[in-house]
Design brief:
single chain, alpha/beta, Rossmann fold, ten-stranded mixed beta sheet, 13 helices, globular, binds alpha-D-glucopyranuronic acid
């Protein structure tokens, strides 16, 4: 018998992902029984069974509060989008106070030969001053030296500590893979969310709340996630002034609580060209009404500072919320949106995230953007890109990995169309 010797090398370098052309059919992703059983054992009070998700009516994105049908993009932008944005401010994230402040930028470190000559590094202190108090957001930015034009840039809201954003590159991290982005011709920016507001509940005394909250707090006063989102916008204020950055091609990126923040950033600040949300789950990218995995009650209990206190009205009362997370995703339309999930991260309800995207898609289509994703979930590790909407579910646990970033860059290659390509 003849024997064939197979070399495995070429297979190993192939990504486990395949690109977007495939038929989304009934071989779509499903949570594994093993994962469901394991997680149920750990938290028996949480539902991880799809069969136990009851039917829920979703707020209709294309009908106004007064019952008028939205049939075109201009009605969406003039009437329905502002309505939904207000509903989120009132019930979910709260409102940014109108206190005036001054802002200044100072490049405190500049290195034309960062990353062995491949990139230019700028470290920028963004100082916010209100009355006698001030706060500094430290922004780190790498741009590729091989590109002679302003580059599309990712801005990460970093919720995982300083080792993930080392400007010296002694510590490299897949959570913010700056080298890989530079190699693909993108700018890579990051700030530490704690610069804007430390991630703890202290009655909103610290961080930017300590500077801008002048009046007594009310049910719709901003929470910490809204503060981080505001901080991302201050970073964009700098990025649009930087000649190495294509200011109209900046994507805001975040994981988990940072992913919830990225979505709200893009909703509040339409200067961002793209929102990328990794494993953001409850009050992020997942439909809250599904009551699958983390619930609004759990989020409010564990993290009472993240959202406005009005959100507590919807503890175990999701159906009363006048929006759901498809509404949040729709606020990014017609700009680009990308949602990623992880197979074992049922706490964040991957299916709920995909469905939110599916139900947001009609708003993207109002603008003539393709966004014709199907209701059935794609299989594991198969990327979907349809117009300005993208999605994947990766194997593995709750995290944002290099594999995720590679897919974000594939999406950006298509929708932000870097000029140098
Ligand atoms: C907790 C929380 C999630 C959040 C996550 C994170 O698990 O319940 O809502 O997304 O922390 O930010 O890592």
């Amino acid at each position: 018998m003849r024997k064939f010797k197979l070399s495995l090398t070429p297979l190993i370098v192939l990504s486990v992902f395949s690109f977007n052309v495939f038929s989304q059919s009934n071989n779509g992703w499903r949570a594994s029984t093993q994962t469901i059983e394991k997680l149920t054992k750990e938290k028996p009070e949480i539902n991880y069974y799809e069969e136990k998700v009851s039917t829920y009516p979703l707020p209709d994105l294309l009908t106004t509060i007064n019952g008028k049908k939205i049939t075109n993009s201009s009605q969406w932008e003039k009437v329905r989008r502002p309505e939904i944005l207000e509903l989120f401010r009132e019930n979910v994230h709260g409102r940014v106070p109108k206190t005036s402040y001054q802002q200044s930028f100072k490049v405190v470190n500049f290195d034309k030969n960062a990353m062995g000559g491949l990139a230019t590094l700028k470290e920028v202190d963004i100082t916010i001053t209100a009355e006698s108090k001030s706060l500094v957001i430290h922004l780190i930015l790498f741009t590729p030296n091989k590109v002679q034009k302003p580059v599309p840039t990712f801005l990460l809201i970093n919720n995982r500590g300083l080792t993930n954003m080392d400007p010296t590159r002694v510590n490299k991290s897949d959570f913010w893979p700056a080298e890989q982005a530079i190699a693909r011709g993108y700018g890579m920016a990051v700030f530490n969310n704690a610069d804007v507001d430390p991630d703890n509940f202290d009655g909103f005394k610290n961080g930017i709340h300590g500077l801008l909250d002048k009046n007594t707090r009310t049910g719709d006063s901003w929470g910490t996630i809204a503060a981080w989102a505001w901080g991302a916008s201050r970073c964009l204020d700098y990025l649009v002034t930087d000649n190495d950055v294509a200011g109209k091609k900046v994507a805001v990126v975040g994981h988990s609580r940072g992913g919830k923040t990225a979505l709200w950033t893009s909703a509040e600040d339409t200067r961002f060209a793209m929102a990328i949300s990794s494993c953001s789950g409850n009050v992020g990218s997942s439909i809250a009404r599904r009551h699958y995995g983390e619930t609004i009650r759990k989020t409010n209990a564990g993290f009472p500072h993240w959202f406005c206190t009005n959100l507590k009205k919807f503890n175990d009362n999701e159906n009363a919320l006048p929006v759901d997370m498809h509404s949040l995703l729709a606020l990014t339309a017609p700009r680009a949106i990308y949602i990623s999930c992880a197979d074992e991260d049922l706490w964040a309800d991957p299916r709920g995230s995909y469905l939110a995207l599916y139900h947001a898609a009609p708003v993207f289509r109002l603008f003539g953007k393709k966004a014709d994703i199907q209701e059935a979930m794609p299989p594991l590790n198969k990327q979907v890109i349809r117009g300005n909407v993208g999605f994947h579910i990766r194997n593995g646990v709750h995290n944002m990995t290099l594999e995720d970033w590679n897919r974000y860059m594939d999406f950006a290659d298509v929708v932000l169309k870097p000029d140098w390509k």
